[in-house]
Write a structure and sequence with these properties.
mainly alpha, 184 residues
Length: 184
Amino acid sequence: MRHGKKINHLGRTSAHRKARLSNMASSLILHKRISTTLAKAKALRTYVEPLITHSKDDSTHSRRVVFSYLQSKEAVSELFREVSKKVAERPGGYTRILKTGNRLGDNAEMCMMELVDYNETMLSTKEAVKAKATRRRRTTKKTAEESGTEVEATKKVKKTAKKEPEAETTQELPLNEVPEEPKE
């Protein structure tokens, strides 16, 4: 039975698992996006999100705590210098996992893990959606301008458009007569 076992051990010893998560977290912080398996990404999310939360408080103690996990000066300085400023307003959920299909060799579920505030394409679409956000209504409200002459004019245009155009009348001529050309 697996009662109370919440950690995915990833088929590794604890030292190997800690080293792998440390390396993956450093790569994620430095490159902002990594490609990995879904199981490793889910394990990495629980590992890296508390570190990003620590980075919001830029103190010597929090830097030392984060360094004890990452073991990389470059990753720690990048985290405290760049990433913490971008995620300052965010209350959590700093990472995003996007599934990319299965790996060809062993059919493992692959995914792309990225820092949320660094994906420019998703941020631009999110802003465009926010700008467009309007309520859908069944009927449109008439403004003061529309209630006057514009509405009447559009009604007249619609009525005239519905009428069929009148057919042009042609004079029937006897077969032996040629029509006269108009004189200029």
